């Protein structure tokens, strides 16, 4: 589907002008992200490998003399305003404004003199598709406020702060991946993140030079029981780690998997552990291949990750299995569901010349099963938060 609207930066600026009657002082962008591989490994202290999308959220902003914040979003057409009292009490600002108030709260909690501000938000990141529109919103607002206030907050400390906004103010128990990706990713690279140490490495992932593309296909599968299923998997993993006497499943080496499995009481727990341990190893193997410039060779790891999520972790749904199967049949080098599961997006690694054909094959497989048409997008690894001119 072609988007005929003006580009997102212009929409944020025009929105600002319309709502506040003047031009913004500046514009800041933060991208959505997709996780190349490493699913449900984050809360097991393991490894993930996201990259930033060319789809971005833009905040146009200007300072405001008093300690108040006003924010308009193109998406809802609403303007939300709040002062220091509402910011000080997590939960007082609700709805989407909570992501913005949460960022102000987290900055103030960390001792920063946050400037009052007027903001206008526009975004190309689809909401709730698993492409992390929430972290993009937080990061766009965060960099705008850091710049406007001349705050001293190094980039490497920003993801933790945005995560606190989402965990404590919004009340969503997310890991550190989304905020790290939207803030720290680099164009042409994936971000290898150790969720225990929060160490990152920018791993070369230059698809264009390799003649390859990644298709991100939004399955539009209705999310079913996501929160409950997520909590159940997480609790199961924590129980398994306790049974094995390790701080987290990350501490079970892949070479000792069979010994560990033999010590577990039931098949369901064994399947959870097998997914997490093998998935961590697949991230490490993917990173090793990318460091060696062998992008084409990661396809098998992507597909193995999908099988593990489907057969062991049991978090896929027919829509995403259909998309993966159709993409592989049409010649994708590898394909997997990406994100927490029960819907969301599928990614497929394809030769650039095959991208349209693979996308069409997935679309017709959906039509044949009477499913809502998916939305395929060809993406390239893009930059993290940026100040625009
Ligand atoms: P995801 O991060 O996968 O897109 P989440 O449920 O974590 O899904 O976050 C989606 C929520 O983030 C939305 O319901 C909305 O409250 C907020 N949000 C994200 N982007 C915007 C935006 N541009 N304008 C208003 N709210 C937004
Ligand atoms: Mg989110």
How would you characterize this protein structure?
This protein folds into 2 domains: 8-204 and 383-387, Ribosomal Protein S5, domain 2, CATH 3.30.230; 207-379, Alpha-Beta Plaits (2-Layer Sandwich), CATH 3.30.70.890. The model has no long low-confidence stretch (mean pLDDT 96). With 389 residues, it is of the alpha+beta class. Helix 3 (97-109) crosses helix 5, helix 8 packs across helix 10 (267-291) and helix 12 packs across helix 13. Helices cover 41% and strands 22% of the residues. It is globular, with a radius of gyration of 21 Å. The strands form 3 sheets. A 6-stranded mixed beta sheet has the order 5-4-6-3-1-13. The protein has a 4-stranded antiparallel beta sheet with strand order 10-11-9-12. Strands 2-7-8 form a 3-stranded antiparallel beta sheet, sandwiched between helices. It has 13 helices and 13 strands. Bound molecules: adenosine-5'-diphosphate and magnesium ion (MG). Magnesium ion (MG) binds next to helix 4.
């Amino acid at each position: 589907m072609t988007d005929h609207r003006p580009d997102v930066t212009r929409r944020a600026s025009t929105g600002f002008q319309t709502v506040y009657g003047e031009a913004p002082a500046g514009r800041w962008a933060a991208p959505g992200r997709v996780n190349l591989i490493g699913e449900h490994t984050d809360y097991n202290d393991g490894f993930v490998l996201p990259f930033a999308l060319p789809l971005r959220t833009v905040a146009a902003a200007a300072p405001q003399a008093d300690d108040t914040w006003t924010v308009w979003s193109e998406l809802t057409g609403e303007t939300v305003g709040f002062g220091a009292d509402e910011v000080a009490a997590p939960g007082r600002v609700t709805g989407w404004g909570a992501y913005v108030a949460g960022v102000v709260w987290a900055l103030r909690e960390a001792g920063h003199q946050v400037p009052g501000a007027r903001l206008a938000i526009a975004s190309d990141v689809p909401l709730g598709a698993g492409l992390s529109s929430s972290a993009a919103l937080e990061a766009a607002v965060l960099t705008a406020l850091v710049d406007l206030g001349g705050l001293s907050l190094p980039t490497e400390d920003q993801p933790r702060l945005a995560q606190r906004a989402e965990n404590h103010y919004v009340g969503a128990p997310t890991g550190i991946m989304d905020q790290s990706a939207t803030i720290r990713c680099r164009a042409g690279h994936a971000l290898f993140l150790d969720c225990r140490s929060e160490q990152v490495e920018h791993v070369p992932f230059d698809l264009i030079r390799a003649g390859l593309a990644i298709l991100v296909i939004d399955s539009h599968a209705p999310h079913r029981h996501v929160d409950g299923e997520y909590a159940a998997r997480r609790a199961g993993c924590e129980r398994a780690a306790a049974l094995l006497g390790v701080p987290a499943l990350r501490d079970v080496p892949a070479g000792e998997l069979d010994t560990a499995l033999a010590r577990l009481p039931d098949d369901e727990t064994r399947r959870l552990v097998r997914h997490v341990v093998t998935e961590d190893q697949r991230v490490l193997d993917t990173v090793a291949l990318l460091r060696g410039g062998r992008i084409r060779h990661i396809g098998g790891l992507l597909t193995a990750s999908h099988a593990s999520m489907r057969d062991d972790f049991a978090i896929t749904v027919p829509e995403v299995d259909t998309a993966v199967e159709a993409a592989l049949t049409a010649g994708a080098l590898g394909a997997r569901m990406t994100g927490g599961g029960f819907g969301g997006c599928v990614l497929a690694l394809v030769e650039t010349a095959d991208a349209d054909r693979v996308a069409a094959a997935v679309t017709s497989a959906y039509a044949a099963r009477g499913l809502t048409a998916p939305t395929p997008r060809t993406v390239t690894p893009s930059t993290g938060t940026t100040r625009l001119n």
